[in-house]
Amino acid sequence: MSGSEAQRIDTYSAFWPFYLQQHAKRETRLWHIAGTGAASVILVAAILTFSFELFLAAVLVGYGPAWISHFVIEKNRPATFRYPVWSLMSDYRMAALWLTGHLDRELAEAGVS
């Protein structure tokens, strides 16, 4: 575990730059955004049909590609393991910033080139 992971983060404002640093590679971010989008569509279908199977599928589709990208591409441990709620919030925040064209600025502010 790296030094930045060993120390507990106590606020979301401190977590956000850490989250972006853990997603430094473009490919990791794209897998997260794709997974978040697909999982959101499946989750809506699960709610509309009251389907537990679709709910489980949404979880797998959302987290599967994201976690694999951390282990294979980014070579780090997903922040979800220590900060599940903040990570989920940040997945949507990152996707929204990407969709609106503002992600590059946030990455630069977090020290991600």
Descriptive notes:
The structure is a single chain. The model has no long low-confidence stretch (mean pLDDT 95). The two termini are 23 Å apart. The protein is mainly α and 113 residues long. The protein has 6 helices and no strands. The protein has one domain. Helix content is 75%, strand content 0%. It is globular.
Given the helix and strand composition, which structural class is it? mainly alpha
User: Helix count, per DSSP?
Assistant: 6
Please count the beta strands (DSSP E, at least 2 residues each). 0
Radius of gyration: 14 Å
Extract low-pLDDT stretches: none
What is the terminal separation in angstroms? 23 Å
Strand content: under 5%
Secondary-structure element string = HHHHHH
Count of folded domains: 1
Most strands sheet: none
The averaged pLDDT comes out at 95
Overall 3D form: globular
The residue fraction in helices comes out at: over 70%
How do the helices and strands line up, and which of them pair or pack?
Blueprint: H1 3-6, H2 12-21, H3 26-49, H4 52-74, H5 84-100, H6 103-109
Distinctive features:
113 residues, mainly alpha, 0% strand, globular
